[in-house]
Amino acid sequence: MLTKILFTLAVIGLVIAMVRFRDRPARTPARHPPKQLGKRWPKVLAISVVMLMLAGTAVIIYLNWRDSHQILQVQVIDSRSGRVSDYQVYRGQLQERRFVTLDGRQVQLAETERLEVAAPP
User: Fold this and answer.
1) How far is Cα 61 from Cα 53, in angstroms, rounded to an integer?
2) Is residue 50 part of a domain?
3) In a 3-state reduction of DSSP, which class is residue 1?
4) Are strands 84-94 and 71-78 parallel, antiparallel or unpaired?
5) Where are the beta strands (DSSP E) in the chain?
6) Phi-psi sector, 104: left (phi>0), alpha (psi -120 to 50), beta
7) Is residue 65 part of a domain?
8) Containing H/E element for 22?
9) pLDDT single digits (tens) 22-78
10) Could you identify which of 17, 45, 73, 98 might form a hypothetical disulfide with 108, taking C-beta atoms 3.0 to 4.6 angstroms apart as the criterion?
11) Element (H, E) at 23
12) Per the structure, how many domains does the chain have?
């Protein structure tokens, strides 16, 4: 409880000191020639870091897009009859038990079917 009171008094004292010293005229320091070289490198560094981050983001987006648009050869094999069906699928459209082919057909696998994926020849 005592710390709350002391903290409140400290905040009040800080506000009073800020109001009192705010109205004082500022002392003008001696004029020194501005150093342009010393103030320029942080800005250049910040801009180069931002550009590096944007370039990295663009590379990651491109690699993700390229991987998801890779065409795969998919074979669906029915284990009961042995019938094999061939499809071409984008890698991004291939899920665990379903996929969408290049021509827009949606295929969902039954429990008796298995899926084999290979890169196209």
Assistant:
1) 12
2) no
3) coil
4) antiparallel
5) 71-78, 84-94, 98-101, 106-108, 113-118
6) left
7) no
8) helix 2-22
9) 766 667 666 766 555 557 888 899 999 999 999 999 999 999 999 999 999 999 999
10) 98
11) none
12) 1
